[in-house]
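Async update (no meeting this week)

Hi team, since we skipped the sync, here's where things stand on the single-chain job. The sequence we agreed to prioritize is pasted below, unchanged from the tracker. I ran it this morning and attached the output directly underneath so nobody has to dig for it. Comments welcome in thread, and please keep replies under the output.
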Amino acid sequence: MSDSVPQMQISGLGRYVPLVAVLIGAGVGYYFFRDYLSFQALADNREALIAFRDANYLLTVGIFVVAYALIVAFSLPGATIATLTGGFLFATFPGALYNITGATIGATAIFLAAQTSFGARIGARLEGSEGITKRFKDAIDENQWSALFLLRLVPAVPFFVANVLPALFEVPLRRYMITTFLGIMPGAVVYTSVGAGLGDVFARGETPNLGIIFEPHVLLPILGLCALAALPVALKAIRGKKGV
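Output:
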């Protein structure tokens, strides 16, 4: 791959330190903060959050982005609530930008942890394999941009899976970060816009519609982007058959 970056090699048990740190952080974070990463917690503290934002806007942005990155990096439950909070505090824009930035930083952290701990070794084994496994690895390598965008765009793919799976296929860090930032943008904008309207939801004593991304007027455009991302793969497959 022409734009690949050197993989950091760590020998012995040291390679597992990042993964262990993520697992410990996930356990500690879940135990201490699970009650704070909920819609009810947001509803109960909304006035205090708004007051703090109004008095310390830049500090609030910094704290929010770091908190979002930690939630994603440690795979804590509450990423959706964090996205809603971004919209609630900062509106659809720049709230979506803050959400995407935090999510990309967190996703990159867990990608690097997985790559350092076991991704590079598994990738090397896949590269040296034969048969259908090697063909599958080669197909991913030849269409990495499309595959990465599809991982991010398809709503059914869990965010954690999309963070870790690329580490197994020796995806270059720069390519991973670009496709993550751009690929999560549609879903992030949708949920951020839901968060931007939480003031009215709170006033009515209701809960937001988190299934909005599966409604036709939202899902169909995202599926269209998925088809666009898959188009290079389909064209290459067609050309390959014609050349046989």
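Quick observations from my side:
Confidence is low (pLDDT under 50) at residues 4-9.
The chain has 13 helices and no strands.
Reply here if anything looks off.
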